[in-house]
Amino acid sequence: MKFYIVDCFAEQKYQGNQLGVFIPDYEISTTEMQQIAKEMNFSETTFILSGKEENGGYRVRIFTPAIEVPFAGHPTLGTAYVIHKVIENDKSDEIVLNLEVGPIHVSVNQDGITMTQNQPEFGQIIEKKIVAELLQIDENDIRDDYPVQWVSTGLPCFVIPLKGEDAIKKCAIHHDKFRHFIETVYQCNMLVFAQSGDRQLNVRVFMDDPGFLEDPATGSANGNLAGYLLKYDYFKSTAVCYTVSQGSEIGRPSTLRIGGELSDGTYHIMVGGNAFIVAQGTWN
What pLDDT is stored for residue 211 in this prediction? Predict the structure, then answer.
């Protein structure tokens, strides 16, 4: 089968979040897809398992090296880009991915690729002390005017508002305490953010992965963050447009462009960026 390596949410090649995209030419098993994802060892690997289905979408499954996930941002964006470039030969301006969470719509134009995310769900609020210990920072580094809260548009995370870029840089996951949190409280990623400009945020995302990896660019979590910012009127507006910088701390600088609106209780969340195919080949 053919495969592609894509850099997602990147401004140029060798930045952003790496993704493996496979197009099997035979009936591939879940076990083999998981083995391939482990072999690739990117944060996610995707498999395009159909041509266009009845709703015009392509059936896609997403795997980390350890598990299958129902939705993730950069795999959605990168897979849609491969479909646009390779399968539809640059002729499409909208791609639909049929994921476990349902159809996700992705638009493609000269400014990049943008996906529409599902309605956010807002869950548990936890004490600052808990996440301060996980991140090995002081409680005073976490803002008091916004909660530490579970949010999901398909793949959940806890959103943690920090007071500034210095606090962002200090974060380092305490593996034992995070493992205990995952086992006893909730298994999900941790997103920390701080404002760095008028419409600019710095973000880091720590994954609930057995390797305790940090993600260089996380579309799903940034969609969660957009819902959170709208819910709590962070930018003092029901319509927002801002840029997220992520990944510099681990040598993979990434840029995500976020748009959102809250109207009559309905959220419209858009997460976009650029993608580059950096390699292609045949998997034996």
Answer: 66
Tell me the domain boundaries of the chain: 2-108+274-282
Q: Are 219 and 186 in contact (CB under 8 A)?
A: no
Q: Cα(125)–Cα(134) distance, rounded to whole angstroms? A: 15
pTM as predicted: 0.92
pLDDT tens figures, 146-193? 999 999 999 999 999 999 999 999 999 999 999 999 999 999 999 999
User: Residue written as tokens 């909208």?
Assistant: 94
pLDDT digits (tens, 9 = 90+) for 29-45: 999 999 999 999 998 99
- CATH assignment of 2-108+274-282, given 3.40.50.300, 2.40.128.270, 2.30.30.240, 3.10.310.10? 3.10.310.10
